[in-house]
Amino acid sequence: MQGFPPAARSAVRDFVGSTLQPGLQTAPQKPALCPLLNTTSQTACSCETLVSCLVREQNRDTVEAMVRRQRPRRLACLALMAVLLADLLALSDTLAVMSVDLGSESMKVAIVKPGVPMEIVLNKESRRKTPVTVTLKENERFFGDSAASMAIKNPKATLRYFQHLLGKQENNPHVALYRARFPEHELGFDPQRQTVYFQISPQLQFSPEEVLSMLLNYSRSLAEDFAEQPIKDAVITVPAFFNQAERRAVLQAARMAGLKVLQLINDNTATALSYGVFRRKDINTTAQNIMFYDMGSGSTVCTIVTYQTVKTKDAGMQPQLQIRGVGFDRTLGGLEMELRLREHLAGLFNEQRKGQGAKDVRENPRAMAKLLREANRLKTVLSANADHMAQIEGLMDDVDFKAKVTRAEFEELCADLFERVPRPVQQALQSAQMNLDEIEQVILVGGATRVPKVQEVLLKAVGKEELGKNINADEAAAMGAVYQAAALSKAFKVKPFVVRDAVIYPILVEFTREVEEEPGVRSLKHNKRVLFSRMGPYPQRKVITFNRYSHDFNFHINYGDLGFLGPEDLRVFGSQNLTTVKLKGVGESFKKYPDYESKGIKAHFNLDESGVLSLDRVESVFETLVEDSPEEESTLTKLGNTISSLFGGGSTPDTKENGTDTIQEEEEGPAEGSKDEPGEQAELKEEAEAPAEDTSPPPPSEPKGDAAPEGEKATEKDNGEKPEAQPSEKGEAGSEGVPPAPEEGKKQKPARKQKMVEEIGVELVVLDLPDLPEDELARSAQKLQDLTLRDLEKQEREKAANSLEAFIFETQDKLYQSEYQEVSTEEQREDISGRLSATSTWLEDEGFGATTVMLKEKLAELKKLCQGLFFRVEERKKWPERLSALDNLLNHSSMFLKGARLIPEMDQIFTEVEMTTLEKVINETWAWKNATVAEQAKLPATEKPVLLSKDIEAKMMALDREVQYLLNKAKFAKPRPRPKDKNGTRAEPPLNASASDQGEKVIPPPGQTEDAKPVSEPEKETRSESADSEPLELGGPGAESEQKEQPTGQKRTLKNDEL
């Protein structure tokens, strides 16, 4: 790291030394910029790999030269290092992401974490789905299965199906329907927002958003327990028919729970994504149209999805799903069937008790809760059986209920519901402008599709041979949502899968302006502009330009044509007016730039991945022609260019390889014109769709509406002047054929367009459902946090009480076991037993009001009292195993020492000091063991032992350390070189020497016999293995004289062999 400044080197060292966790996978989902390579790395890597790459690549000569050359680049490197370390620290905090599939009756939670790809979370009862039920009492809360069991005991405090009240005002038909279905709940009225809330008691009241927030917080606790790490990021599923108010209500609930919502994904889209992810090999360029029919507990949604591979800008050919058509029924589902069964069972029970003067069972909330639970079980059983016996013990007034119900009776009760089954299919086909022949397969999703009559009616409606059941009807949405969560998270990289969702409810902009139809006659004209059309893809951005306003004005954002909804659905839908936008500062912007030409008031709209509409900003745009004057680049500009060059030459947009397909921002269309309304709308549509084709640059008079950074503004200015300068430049090049001189170029440089953007003040008046004010939102979040802390304190106290009670019972039982009686006296056992009985009595009499601290102190006192007894028992249990291990180690160490002393002196690798030290440790350990065992044998069993297991382990560790030291030395020791004779001739090679070694024998010169040479002593064959691998060394004066006497060719050969 010599090329880096000291601060950077220190930062890397501190980070590597204190922050990194081994094996932590932090593969970025987006291309991660490697600042020292000027490239984008898309491979999964760990934190250690990133930092090691950083440390390794900085040694490259190019980077060193760059750092030495300019000081601004050093500053840039420091900034990039800080950004990289901050990113890594953020990734190391939390890596897991979760999804919550919020159904009407139950929810499924899934997680993705390093090493655990897409797993359904098990709840505390080890079930894969959890009831969407919350029980709220004065001092405690229950969730899931615990709350469902409380529905019988306390139906008023147990809240179910509360999602049906999200985003709805008090006069909504669904509120009245909820009151009719669950009369035990008292719904209060919030005059500020015109909504309802649950009145549990005079002191307890919660809005539907707060109840949902509690449930989301509970789902996060389940996910964190399963993942064993904190989780903040989540993708939540919502029904596809949720409007803007309902989606905002879910986001507010998640905000109260402290969850960061990566996306609200439609449950039908999540199901389609799960289906496509596990079948991506079957997706090709040929479009496949699949229909998903999802009938859950509360509603039914039919979706037509098209799968095919498309060419993406960054990842090449990738699979894509596109939502083509959607149909739904808000109230058709399993709950309505269960309610009708409940009503039928209540009638049967009243008939059985007729004439006894009994009350109507419908007036007893507990009895109705029991009947609803039995109706749910009955519906499930009748799906596989022709008849079944419904029975409830002690339904009301200790009277048992028993009645036989057949499938035919059930189908007759729900006959009108089964007639509504084909309607979502027809709506989906109509919105997709397709027919049934184009649908390849119809797949069933949702629990209510298991009812045989539903399948029979649906099969007849779609005209297929069979219905597809090759998907997990309960978990598909949760799995698709968690895949999307991993794709949107920065901590994971998944295979790209393009998702193009569709707008269900069109949105338009309405405004009024004055027009002069005849000279001197002015009138108001109402204009409408479709912002997001029905079944159009999202997320996407749109810009609308108001050209003829020079003063403050208002416009309205409303829903478009909702004619596809029936009269009842329109009443449930609520307000069709979304927002009134009041602009302030338009006139001041015109006064500020009087010499500039106005390009209109541009309103930037965004329909994000969650399907939530927002107004990003409103700008007043002006343009004028200015002449360029050459000027020196400032130091700040140079520094900015230096930083940009480190990022690969400039800023690149952060594109998502996976997730919802980002639509290019639309060109702003004219807000008004001289044509009539239909003509204006058609003109707007053409201009809005032109940029999506990307075949021609936009005209210079209509620049892009996106407010860009300064770097991009400069690009826009350059692009703006090119169309004007292009003809003259071409003419000059054609006539002269040579480029003009620099001075002439400066003189002839044409004027360029300068764009000025002024931010306009915006005041939003929400018309559909006002959001919670920030102070109320903070109060709700604090209230829920206090409830969570109270629950945690309660759990801690219960845990302490259970631990104390368990210790008392276990210890009382141990006092009568032989191994405990052997090491204790009668007096000791009586003392312990008396203290245990006293504490047990205290726990029964006063323990109910004891605090957690008091319970823990009582437990600590008892453990201290019994500590000596338990210690003596545990030590006696460990002695046999520990002593046997010590004997084995001593025997093996003695054998090792004996073998080491038998090694010949020439080959000895251990020193005398080392062997003497080992022998000393062995002797001392033997002596300690024999003395301690003998001393322990003299002590009574009731006394504290002197032979301790920890001392035995310490002796074993000391002895093992000495042996391991010698073993490691033997493992890595190099053999000693062989001694040479006095005349320096090398030893004769061993029998197993290679041919190349044999060829190195010295050949005597002509006329001299080999007998005249001195004979060398044979070499000991102690290093036969090294003779094969290592070249022989020649040394001594004798060897030099022999080499001089050899011919020249032989000398070269010898040198080459040595090399």
TrEMBL record:
**InterPro entries named among the record's database cross-references:** ATPase_NBD, Heat_shock_70_CS, HSP70_C_sf, HSP70_peptide-bd_sf, Hsp_70_fam
Query: Which sequence ranges are marked TM in the entry?
Result: 75-98
Q: Does the keyword RNA-binding apply?
A: no
User: Which keywords has UniProt assigned to this entry?
Assistant: ATP-binding, Chaperone, Endoplasmic reticulum, Membrane, Nucleotide-binding, Signal, Transmembrane, Transmembrane helix
Pfam families the UniProt entry points to? HSP70
Where composition is biased (Basic and acidic residues), the residues are 673-688, 703-733, 1010-1026
Ranges of compositional bias, category Polar residues: 636-645
Enumerate the subcellular locations listed in this protein's record, separating them with semicolons. Answer: Endoplasmic reticulum lumen
Ranges where the record places region Disordered:
626-754, 970-1059
The text of the family note is: Belongs to the heat shock protein 70 family.
Q: What is this protein called?
A: Hypoxia up-regulated protein 1
